[in-house]
Amino acid sequence: MDESDFYLNLETHQLHMSYKNEKRRVRVLLPENYDQDEAVDYPVVYMHDGQNVFYSSESYSGHSWKVIQAIKGNTDLPRMIVVGIDNGGQDRIDEYTPWKITESPLPENIELGGRGAEFAEFVMKVVKPFIDKNYRTKSDKTHTAMIGSSLGGTISAFMGIEYRDQIGGLGIFSLANWITGKAFDSYIAREELDPEQRVYIQVGTQEGDDADRQLMHGNMKQAYIDCSLKYYKQLIEGAVPIDHIRFHIFADEEHHEKAWAKHLPNCFRFLSEKWS
Questions:
Q1: Which of 81, 178, 242, 256 could form a disulfide with 223 if both were Cys (CB 3.0 to 4.6 A apart)?
Q2: Quick one: pLDDT at residue 5?
Q3: Pick from 267, 269, 276: which is nearest to 47 by CA?
Q4: Contact 228/255 with Cβ under 8 angstroms?
Q5: Distance from C-alpha of 133 to C-alpha of 13, rounded to nearest angstrom
Q6: Where are the domains of the chain?
Q7: Strand ranges (DSSP E) for the chain?
Q8: 6 in helix, strand or coil?
């Protein structure tokens, strides 16, 4: 760890997942002077794929979201608590997709997906209450945000609808809704969306990686752009005001933490505009 990181305290917890009967690592990044400012409560940003959030040495891609650097290097950002929730490793696809994957070319003997609702319940009924009990948080909807990329964006989009009474901000990076597109389309069409929610969306024009190509035939780059555009349209059709949405298509950017880290400060800025 770089010495300059020391003043931001990162605390580690192992929280029990009842539906899998195992523990999951959850880490909590506290703002500067958290221990000294005992009368201050803070907004909370929850981030999926926690292994990739804080340190590049842990990240699957070799590059993290650079959250510590983003907070330290952008002094205009409001102080916040950032919670990184680890993914389930080989169970990541199952946990981040609320529906069984039926639209992708899987081998006949392999089933994937469908445990997203259980994972979302773990986050909202175990992780969030634990954070609110053990830290000085602003636990209301306005001051609670959820950020994820790729399938982490898919589960974030789902949770933003399913738990719209508790989540006021969403950061949806490189949304991978193509993997269960018909199921998501049906779900969002029948749900009432929250017009107060703020949603940041971004996608690059060079999206897609080797793992994706095992699950899809066709133009992967276009698939990412299309499902981000469709999600944007679905939010507007669901009465989310345009000024509550930020949608960016970034030329030549890839499906990688390097791209997501680059724009994370602007995501934080947008989601925090209504924080008190």
A1: 178
A2: 47
A3: 267
A4: no
A5: 13
A6: 3-271
A7: 10-17, 22-29, 44-47, 81-85, 144-149, 169-173, 198-206, 245-254
A8: coil
